[in-house]
Amino acid sequence: MTDLPAVPLLRLDPGIPMPARAHTGDAGVDLCTTVDVTLEPGRRALVGTGIAVALPVGTVGLIHPRSGLAAKFGLSVVNTPGTVDAGYRGEIKVCLINHDPDRVVELRRGDRIAQLLVQKVELVDFVEVDSLDDTSRGAGGYGSSGGHAGLVKEGS
Ligand SMILES: O=c1ccn([C@H]2C[C@H](O)[C@@H](COP(=O)(O)OP(=O)(O)OP(=O)(O)O)O2)c(=O)[nH]1
Ligand SMILES: [Mg+2]
User: Fold this and answer.
1) What is the Cα–Cα distance from 118 to 27, expressed in whole angstroms?
2) Which residues contact 154 (CB under 8 A, 6 or more apart)?
3) Is this complex's ipTM strictly greater than 0.90?
4) Which of 87, 106, 112, 127 has the fewest CB atoms inside 10 Å of its own CB, making it the most exposed?
5) Per the record, where are the segments of Gly residues compositional bias (predicted)?
6) Which ligand 1 atom is at minimum distance from the Cα of 63?
7) 43 alpha carbon to ligand 1 midpoint, in Å?
8) Do the strands 29-32 and 75-77 form a parallel or antiparallel pair, or are they unpaired?
9) Which of 46, 85, 91 is the pocket-test mutation for ligand 1 (most atoms within 8 Å of CB)?
10) Whole-angstrom distance, CA of residue 100 vs CA of residue 96
11) What are phi and psi of 92, to 5 degrees?
12) pTM for this structure?
């Protein structure tokens, strides 16, 4: 399903299973926490996954939240998606955050807490210039195309 060779993966914690896809064709492999974590509302924690990888140059690992945990418990990743550089050989870690305003999130060692996607990435160079070409968007951004009126109620 890919023209890339299998990615070398070191299991730093033998008690944690190989990352795996829940279903054939899934974009990501699930990552587990190596530690129990209790996250009070609004709190975050950096947790280990027990794995290290050697991604091919020209690819990047992206750490995404799991949608089920996000929808059910408000659990997400602070820096989503986390960036795992091809040259990184340390343990992949995940900076989890509890976005739920009221409920504590309790995670146990071995729970699947996030997912790792591997994508090809262009390693472009940058060249300094004096001006940029004209486009219809120009410098417009951050809502310049409209569509936000009425989304926020007066006084909120
Ligand atoms: O969710 C993440 C994000 C990053 N990393 C590791 C792999 C990545 O290659 C390295 C550096 O990440 P990043 O470049 O996002 O962090 P930084 O704050 O810029 O650190 P550095 O100065 O080390 O680049 O940390 C993780 O294990 N998990
Ligand atoms: Mg960096």
Assistant:
1) 8
2) none
3) yes
4) 127
5) 138-149
6) 1
7) 20
8) unpaired
9) 85
10) 12
11) -70, 130
12) 0.95
